[in-house]
Amino acid sequence: MNKVVLVGAGGKMGCRLTDNLKDSKYAVSYLEVSEAGLSRMAERGISASRPEEVVPDADMVIFAVPDVAIRAVTANLVPMMRSGAIGITLDPAAPLAGHLFAREDISYFASHPSHPSVFNWEPEEKAHYDYFGGIAARQAIVCALIQGPEEVYLAGEELAKTIYSPVTVSHRITIEQMGILEPALSETFGAAVVSVLKEGVDRVVELGVPKQAAYDFFLGHINIELALLFGQLPGGQFSDAALKAIEIGKPLIFKENWKDVFEPESVKKQILAIT
Q: Helix, strand, or coil here: 152?
């Protein structure tokens, strides 16, 4: 299973994958249609192939395209794939929305990076500032077999470890669980909360606190609070005063039903909205 076609090779995500695939053990062909993407590929010393020349012979086809384009792209390319080949998506939204072209004689696999943890210790500067991952910083990944025989999972996971390298651990989950992690946990909930954190700091600055003082004070406190809550300081705990402040803050900031964002119907609505 070493013949790979990367669709969208010149896109934002595609370029990251291209960089990790071009010197790997895989025999890779690259597909791209945009002029900007083709230009980025040229900068990397690679050129685009014709779909009809490479897709029918591929063992695995990676769809590194936006969620809103998956339906059209798979409808065009999946009929070209050989029986037994694997289609790989980099996000759970399109599969859960039913946007993958239906073929019972091929397999589908999904994988997504967790991105480097805030608790990573990276001794080299290149890794330290690799916030996205896939360049030098270590990260975990999640993988799911959507359809196909069990041996497909191992082949998909091995490829996922290459495109997201360096990988510390690969977590096997279901595609439904991946949808809870993204968009529900990481974006609908997490990104919303983090954006409000930034708005809170901005408000403090508006009230007259020097910007750098606010940033230093808040980011330092975020660091210790995350460490306490996520088990990085065994035995550590919030002070009584901090616990009282949390008790005051939660009902002022959050709706009582905020956890409904993780319920199946809510996750489904989120997925349909972004696809």
A: helix
